[in-house]
Design brief:
It is built from three helices and six strands. It is an alpha/beta fold. The longest helix has 9 residues. The protein starts with a strand and ends in a 14-residue tail after the last strand.
């Protein structure tokens, strides 16, 4: 299973979680079956490229997104691709993966997502 965390850098499991998933410079992806870690650049339209971040991550085989927070519209797009989203990520990718495995992150829902897009998350 491929699990993704939006990141500020290219430091793999030690990478810092980016608070705004759509404008993250990179996405760090952990394959929980093989243990392989890859970092891909954010080439979505938020960064001057094409496609929305959920489309980019779907094309990279992501099945789980762990992020700090995001808007409900983004959650619905992730759902359309069959990608489950959890919110509450912070610290490093390693910290986030451990929190997710421990059940400390919440499934994204209308209640815990951002109602507006113009603030930092």
């Amino acid at each position: 299973m491929k699990v993704c965390v939006p990141t500020r850098d290219n430091n793999g499991m030690e990478g810092a979680v980016e608070q705004h998933f759509g404008k993250a410079p990179t996405y760090t992806i952990l394959d929980t079956d093989s243990g392989e870690v890859s970092v891909i650049p954010n080439t979505s339209d938020h960064m001057g490229g094409t496609d929305l971040p959920p489309e980019l991550l779907y094309k990279n085989g992501v099945e789980i997104m762990l992020c700090s927070g995001l808007g409900y519209r983004a959650v619905k797009i992730f759902e359309s691709y069959g990608i489950d989203v959890f919110v509450g990520a912070r610290g490093t990718v390693q910290d986030t993966i451990e929190a997710w495995k421990a059940g400390q992150l919440n499934n994204a829902s209308a209640e815990n997502t951002c109602a507006e897009h113009d603030h930092h998350h």
